[in-house]
Here is the input.
Amino acid sequence: NAGVMQNPRHLVRRRGQEARLRCSPMKGHSHVYWYRQLPEEGLKFMVYLQKENIIDESGMPKERFSAEFPKEGPSILRIQQVVRGDSAAYFCASSPGTRRETQYFGPGTRLLVL
Amino acid sequence: GNSVTQMEGPVTLSEEAFLTINCTYTATGYPSLFWYVQYPGEGLQLLLKATKADDKGSNKGFEATYRKETTSFHLEKGSVQVSDSAVYFCALSEMNRDDKIIFGKGTRLHILP
Here is the structure.
Protein backbone atom coordinates (compact mmCIF):
# COMPACT_ATOMS: atom_id res chain seq x y z
CA ASN A 1 0.00 0.00 0.00
CA ALA A 2 1.74 3.13 -1.22
CA GLY A 3 1.94 6.02 1.20
CA VAL A 4 0.92 9.60 0.60
CA MET A 5 2.55 10.80 -2.60
CA GLN A 6 3.45 14.34 -3.44
CA ASN A 7 4.91 15.82 -6.58
CA PRO A 8 7.00 17.47 -7.52
CA ARG A 9 9.44 16.97 -4.64
CA HIS A 10 11.23 20.17 -5.54
CA LEU A 11 9.84 23.15 -7.42
CA VAL A 12 11.60 26.34 -8.45
CA ARG A 13 9.59 29.34 -9.56
CA ARG A 14 10.35 32.97 -10.32
CA ARG A 15 8.38 35.71 -8.63
CA GLY A 16 5.00 36.17 -10.28
CA GLN A 17 4.72 32.62 -11.61
CA GLU A 18 2.22 30.02 -10.49
CA ALA A 19 3.03 26.96 -8.42
CA ARG A 20 0.93 23.80 -8.46
CA LEU A 21 1.55 21.17 -5.83
CA ARG A 22 -0.07 17.75 -6.06
CA CYS A 23 -0.97 15.26 -3.38
CA SER A 24 -2.28 11.74 -3.83
CA PRO A 25 -3.62 10.39 -0.54
CA MET A 26 -3.16 6.87 0.65
CA LYS A 27 -5.51 4.35 -0.87
CA GLY A 28 -8.84 4.42 0.90
CA HIS A 29 -8.25 7.85 2.45
CA SER A 30 -10.81 10.52 1.67
CA HIS A 31 -9.51 13.34 3.89
CA VAL A 32 -6.57 15.53 2.89
CA TYR A 33 -4.73 18.22 4.84
CA TRP A 34 -2.12 20.71 3.70
CA TYR A 35 0.56 22.18 5.97
CA ARG A 36 3.35 24.66 5.35
CA GLN A 37 6.76 24.49 7.02
CA LEU A 38 8.86 27.61 6.92
CA PRO A 39 12.61 27.29 7.55
CA GLU A 40 13.36 26.41 11.19
CA GLU A 41 9.65 26.41 12.00
CA GLY A 42 7.08 23.77 12.76
CA LEU A 43 4.32 22.87 10.39
CA LYS A 44 1.38 25.23 10.17
CA PHE A 45 -2.07 23.98 9.19
CA MET A 46 -3.41 25.48 5.98
CA VAL A 47 -6.49 23.63 4.79
CA TYR A 48 -8.54 20.48 5.30
CA LEU A 49 -10.47 18.95 2.41
CA GLN A 50 -12.70 16.03 1.71
CA LYS A 51 -13.62 14.94 -1.79
CA GLU A 52 -15.01 18.00 -3.59
CA ASN A 53 -15.37 19.94 -0.34
CA ILE A 54 -13.25 22.38 1.63
CA ILE A 55 -13.95 21.67 5.29
CA ASP A 56 -11.61 24.13 6.99
CA GLU A 57 -9.43 26.72 5.27
CA SER A 58 -8.70 28.83 8.32
CA GLY A 59 -4.96 28.54 7.79
CA MET A 60 -4.92 29.60 4.15
CA PRO A 61 -3.67 33.06 3.22
CA LYS A 62 -6.58 35.14 1.98
CA GLU A 63 -5.07 35.84 -1.42
CA ARG A 64 -3.20 33.87 -4.08
CA PHE A 65 -3.66 30.46 -2.39
CA SER A 66 -6.33 27.93 -3.27
CA ALA A 67 -6.83 24.21 -2.80
CA GLU A 68 -9.05 21.57 -4.28
CA PHE A 69 -9.66 17.85 -3.95
CA PRO A 70 -11.70 16.75 -6.95
CA LYS A 71 -13.77 13.62 -7.20
CA GLU A 72 -11.09 12.08 -9.40
CA GLY A 73 -7.39 12.76 -9.19
CA PRO A 74 -5.05 14.26 -6.66
CA SER A 75 -5.52 17.21 -4.36
CA ILE A 76 -3.98 20.40 -5.72
CA LEU A 77 -2.55 23.32 -3.77
CA ARG A 78 -2.23 26.29 -6.09
CA ILE A 79 -0.22 29.42 -5.40
CA GLN A 80 -0.66 32.26 -7.86
CA GLN A 81 1.88 35.05 -8.40
CA VAL A 82 4.40 33.54 -6.03
CA VAL A 83 6.60 35.76 -3.87
CA ARG A 84 9.87 34.94 -2.10
CA GLY A 85 8.03 34.53 1.19
CA ASP A 86 6.18 31.54 -0.27
CA SER A 87 9.44 29.56 -0.26
CA ALA A 88 8.79 26.70 2.14
CA ALA A 89 8.13 22.99 2.37
CA TYR A 90 4.51 22.09 1.77
CA PHE A 91 3.31 18.84 3.29
CA CYS A 92 0.18 16.94 2.54
CA ALA A 93 -1.37 14.44 4.93
CA SER A 94 -4.31 12.10 4.57
CA SER A 95 -6.55 10.13 6.88
CA PRO A 96 -9.12 7.39 6.32
CA GLY A 97 -12.34 9.14 7.03
CA THR A 98 -13.09 10.14 10.56
CA ARG A 99 -11.76 13.12 12.38
CA ARG A 100 -10.00 11.13 15.02
CA GLU A 101 -7.96 8.98 12.68
CA THR A 102 -4.21 9.45 12.50
CA GLN A 103 -2.92 11.64 9.70
CA TYR A 104 -0.23 10.16 7.44
CA PHE A 105 2.20 12.60 5.87
CA GLY A 106 3.76 12.72 2.44
CA PRO A 107 7.43 13.57 1.77
CA GLY A 108 6.63 17.20 1.00
CA THR A 109 7.24 19.60 -1.87
CA ARG A 110 10.03 22.09 -1.37
CA LEU A 111 9.18 25.31 -3.16
CA LEU A 112 11.88 27.84 -3.89
CA VAL A 113 10.91 31.22 -5.28
CA LEU A 114 13.74 33.11 -6.94
CA GLY B 1 -5.14 29.95 21.54
CA ASN B 2 -3.69 26.48 21.63
CA SER B 3 0.07 26.18 21.31
CA VAL B 4 3.02 23.85 21.76
CA THR B 5 6.45 24.80 23.08
CA GLN B 6 9.38 22.44 22.84
CA MET B 7 13.02 22.76 23.69
CA GLU B 8 15.18 24.32 21.06
CA GLY B 9 17.87 22.36 19.35
CA PRO B 10 20.07 21.17 18.09
CA VAL B 11 20.57 18.51 20.70
CA THR B 12 23.78 16.51 20.31
CA LEU B 13 24.31 13.27 22.20
CA SER B 14 26.61 10.30 22.04
CA GLU B 15 25.25 6.91 21.10
CA GLU B 16 23.62 5.06 24.04
CA ALA B 17 23.01 8.29 25.96
CA PHE B 18 19.67 9.04 27.62
CA LEU B 19 17.43 11.41 25.72
CA THR B 20 14.85 13.89 26.96
CA ILE B 21 13.16 16.44 24.72
CA ASN B 22 10.85 18.71 26.68
CA CYS B 23 7.42 19.68 25.42
CA THR B 24 4.71 21.74 27.09
CA TYR B 25 1.38 22.79 25.71
CA THR B 26 -1.42 25.27 26.16
CA ALA B 27 -4.90 24.08 25.31
CA THR B 28 -8.45 24.07 26.51
CA GLY B 29 -10.06 20.82 27.45
CA TYR B 30 -8.27 17.55 26.80
CA PRO B 31 -6.28 17.61 23.58
CA SER B 32 -4.61 14.60 22.03
CA LEU B 33 -0.81 14.81 22.12
CA PHE B 34 1.66 13.53 19.57
CA TRP B 35 5.32 13.19 18.77
CA TYR B 36 6.24 13.14 15.10
CA VAL B 37 9.69 12.43 13.66
CA GLN B 38 11.10 13.79 10.41
CA TYR B 39 14.11 12.04 8.95
CA PRO B 40 16.25 13.97 6.43
CA GLY B 41 14.42 14.57 3.15
CA GLU B 42 11.29 12.79 4.30
CA GLY B 43 7.84 13.67 5.54
CA LEU B 44 6.68 13.41 9.10
CA GLN B 45 5.99 10.07 10.68
CA LEU B 46 3.85 9.60 13.73
CA LEU B 47 6.13 8.30 16.49
CA LEU B 48 3.65 8.01 19.34
CA LYS B 49 0.47 9.53 20.71
CA ALA B 50 -1.59 9.82 23.89
CA THR B 51 -5.21 10.81 24.04
CA LYS B 52 -5.94 11.31 27.73
CA ALA B 53 -4.24 12.27 30.98
CA ASP B 54 -1.69 9.79 32.35
CA ASP B 55 -1.63 7.82 29.10
CA LYS B 56 1.85 6.74 28.03
CA GLY B 57 2.62 6.55 24.34
CA SER B 58 5.53 4.36 23.31
CA ASN B 59 7.20 3.21 20.11
CA LYS B 60 10.71 2.16 19.02
CA GLY B 61 12.03 2.64 22.55
CA PHE B 62 10.65 6.18 22.82
CA GLU B 63 8.11 7.07 25.51
CA ALA B 64 6.07 10.11 26.50
CA THR B 65 3.50 10.49 29.27
CA TYR B 66 0.53 12.86 29.05
CA ARG B 67 0.81 15.01 32.21
CA LYS B 68 -2.25 17.16 32.65
CA GLU B 69 -1.05 18.75 35.90
CA THR B 70 2.13 20.09 34.29
CA THR B 71 0.71 20.34 30.73
CA SER B 72 3.70 18.40 29.47
CA PHE B 73 4.47 15.54 27.11
CA HIS B 74 8.24 15.08 27.32
CA LEU B 75 9.86 12.58 24.96
CA GLU B 76 12.36 10.12 26.44
CA LYS B 77 14.53 7.28 25.26
CA GLY B 78 16.89 5.30 27.43
CA SER B 79 19.62 4.61 24.88
CA VAL B 80 19.73 6.50 21.60
CA GLN B 81 21.22 5.25 18.34
CA VAL B 82 22.80 7.07 15.41
CA SER B 83 19.70 6.18 13.39
CA ASP B 84 17.60 8.30 15.77
CA SER B 85 19.13 11.45 14.31
CA ALA B 86 16.18 13.45 12.99
CA VAL B 87 13.91 16.38 13.81
CA TYR B 88 11.26 15.68 16.44
CA PHE B 89 7.99 17.59 16.59
CA CYS B 90 5.66 17.74 19.54
CA ALA B 91 2.06 18.40 18.51
CA LEU B 92 -1.51 18.52 19.73
CA SER B 93 -4.97 18.37 18.31
CA GLU B 94 -7.98 19.87 19.96
CA MET B 95 -10.45 17.62 21.68
CA ASN B 96 -12.62 15.98 19.02
CA ARG B 97 -10.76 17.86 16.28
CA ASP B 98 -7.94 15.71 14.99
CA ASP B 99 -8.27 17.46 11.66
CA LYS B 100 -6.17 20.42 12.79
CA ILE B 101 -2.83 19.53 14.33
CA ILE B 102 -0.77 22.25 16.01
CA PHE B 103 2.97 21.65 15.90
CA GLY B 104 5.89 22.87 17.92
CA LYS B 105 8.91 24.25 16.09
CA GLY B 106 10.80 20.99 16.18
CA THR B 107 13.99 19.85 17.89
CA ARG B 108 16.88 18.65 15.76
CA LEU B 109 18.69 15.67 17.30
CA HIS B 110 22.21 14.62 16.34
CA ILE B 111 23.56 11.32 17.65
CA LEU B 112 27.30 10.84 17.43
CA PRO B 113 28.76 7.34 17.05
The longest strand of chain A covers residues 43-50. The mean pLDDT of chain A is 91.
